[in-house]
Amino acid sequence: MTVTVPALRCAGLVHVYRVAGTDVAALRGVDLAVQPGQRVALLGRSGSGKSTLLSIVAGVMTPSAGTAEVFGEDLGQITRAGLRRLRGNVLGLMLQGAATNLILFDDAVGNIDYVTSRTLRGDRSVGLDVLDAAGFADLRTPVGLLSPSEQQVVAFAVAMSTRPKLLLMDEPTSRLGDAARDHLLDVLVDATAQQGTAVLVVTHDESVARRMDRMIHIRDGRIAEEATASGRFAVIGADGSVQLPEDALQGAWAPGSLVTVEVDGERAIHLRPQ
Question: pLDDT value at position 57?
Fold first, then answer.
């Protein structure tokens, strides 16, 4: 029997910042698994913890507690050499702002060639296929002279040319209009499906999130809800906690309210305000 190792597994993940002498918990026990080839969106307000989670998975931050594993590699225990190997062979990263990911004086193909020459799994044909699918096969303009939407497509082509097993994306459509956003998403979904690439994308845009296989809503450092094609659901944490939907936290359900918890014979749970 073949056991599939998750592309990403987080268990009890906690991260605490020290700010002005005070501990601030950005993540409060996150449990999350992303399977190979699966596309997952992280949504939440600013300060919810989604960017901290992405930074930990990218190896930029070390978790305060709990575990985060990428294809079985524990990011809390990994060496610098191991992290370099992971980034070269497994992880792809597309930061917010396409120019951050690119050599601005070179053209799209030059950017792809630069990256693929420095990664073991690099394949320039994959990046060229992305450019072709986006209608940019003949693009020879220096990247710094391209429009924001063109730069985003090139940044995605460069990221995919490393043939990552897990691609991390931070607000990849933040500077795009609706038409350019939808065009990039079409290319993204097709390219990652063809390569079997898992995707973890941070976004504020539900139009982006709906194109992924799963939508994970983070609130106050915890996973609050998950949406798939089957519907939208609250998520029970390992400690038994459940965050109520934000629209329920009104009136009788205000923070600090007392409730009774009743479990019926069908294993349904009923909350009743005092």
Answer: 93
Long-range contacts at 237-244 (CB < 8 A, ≥ 24 apart): 237/29, 237/31, 238/11, 238/12, 238/29, 238/31, 239/29, 243/219
What pTM does this model have? 0.89
Distance CA 16, CA 3 (A): 33
Confidence of residue 248 (pLDDT cuts 50, 70, 90): low
Question: Per residue, what are the HEC states of the chain?
Answer: CCCCCCCEEEEEEEEEEEECCEEEEEEEEEEEEECCCCEEEEECCCCCCHHHHHHHHCCCCCCCEEEEEECCEECCCCCHHHHHHHHHHCEEEECCCHHHHCCCCCCHHHHHHHHHCCCCCCCHHHHHHHHHHCCCCCCCCCHHHCCHHHHHHHHHHHHHHCCCCEEEEECCCCCCCHHHHHHHHHHHHHHHHHHCCEEEEECCCHHHHCCCCEEEEEECCEEEEEEECCEEEECECCCCCECCCHHHCCHHHCCCCCEEEEECCCCCEEEEEC
Which residues share a beta bridge with 70? 8, 73
Amino acid at 135: G
CB 130 within 8 A of CB 156: yes
**What is the percent of the chain with per-residue pLDDT over 90, rounded to a whole number?**
42
In this predicted structure, what is the pLDDT of residue 3?
63
Query: Whole-angstrom Cα distance, residue 22 to residue 178?
Result: 41
CA 263 – CA 271 distance, rounded (Å)? 9
CB neighbour class for 118 (10 Å; exposed up to 12, middle 13-18, buried from 19) = exposed
